[in-house]
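ARCHIVE CARD
Drawer: 12
Card no.: 0347
Subject: one protein chain, sequence and derived structure
Cross-reference: see card 0346
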Amino acid sequence: MPSLRKKNDGRYFVDYSRPRRNGKRKRCRHSLKTKNHAVAEKRFNAFIKSIEDAPPLPTNFDHDLESGNPELKSLATWYTETVMLARGCTCESRHIAGVRLDDVLNWLSDRQVYRVGDIDSTPYLLENWTAERLRTHKPTTVRTRLVTLKAVFNAAFEYRLIDSLPIRRWPSVRIPAPKYDELDTQELKRFLSELRTRKSAYTKVACFLSYTGARPSDAANLKWNDIIYDEGLVFAHFRQQKTREFVSVALSRQAQEVVEMERARQTGSEYVFTNAKGEPFPPRRISKALWESPRRWGFKNISAKTFRQTLVTILYDGGADDEMVRRITGHRSEAIRSYRKVRRSAAHELAQKFADVFDSETTEQVRTEKTGHSKAPMSHKLLGIITVDRTDSSVPSAGNSARS
């Protein structure tokens, strides 16, 4: 019997079982994608009704296909209308699989490839299709279509419609990692000023992410009980959604103002950042808003990780050590160093600061020669050691103090 359950982070889901062709049942889980109990119950009832109204599973796999060398389009229809239905797939998923297969099979038909056996006789067939599609489609789209076609051949081989798999080695599609542009101090100020002028539901949570460098999942699940006030200092003590470890993040004055503005706006919600209905923002919605909105403002390739990298870089450039960076960002592992992006001008700025010490040393040496006073060594100046001029009569020396 399907049951409505709740995860530790507050999201609701459904545990149910669906029948299989062999008479057994398979345990499944369906996410309702909400933390509101009333909305979860409404979606739960709709999901139960969709299961009850589902068509019966086929009792047999009778087909009119030619065993050994069936037609590709007939094989695709058999897979979507029989195999996927027996596996309990929804009508929408079967339609999506059919659209993916039509794209590949139409391309093969234009090259006189109609049956499974024709694939073996044409070398580098899918490699050419992959290279052509990558020019106009995203790598993820190309990969999903190849995976769907591979599932068709595996099902046909399982039910002995074909004697062997027509493709032994499938084309590899490499999905590049997303590139995020790091913001310098001036660009970050411009972004925050632009963000404050926009009236969006994600404005406050975006400001909080930029001030703290937190992840969208952590900001979405941040509760008022996680905000701790300790002798004038404010911390956010919460369990990270990625690592499931408790961390304490030091909140700056600007981050505290964002939190207090949300406290004044809300009425009775346990979460800090919520929408107009009092529900917490889904992390994916936050990431999508941070990706789409800045592109309209002239910023490209900005995400929540951009704020994290920018904050870590500014902290390291300001002289913070690893322990201080971990306390500010809440990152517990040594991988925090990988977030730092060395700016091209950072090395020149540090070299100039070191050179300014020598310039001041030369100036002080000229003053010492004119006045006759001694000067502290360079090592003392770099280490911040304060020296005392022993020639000054107002400061007694060790010998004078001993005689007295």
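Annotation on reverse: Residues 373-404 have pLDDT under 50 and may be disordered. The domain at 185-339 is CATH 1.10.443.10 (hpI Integrase; Chain A).
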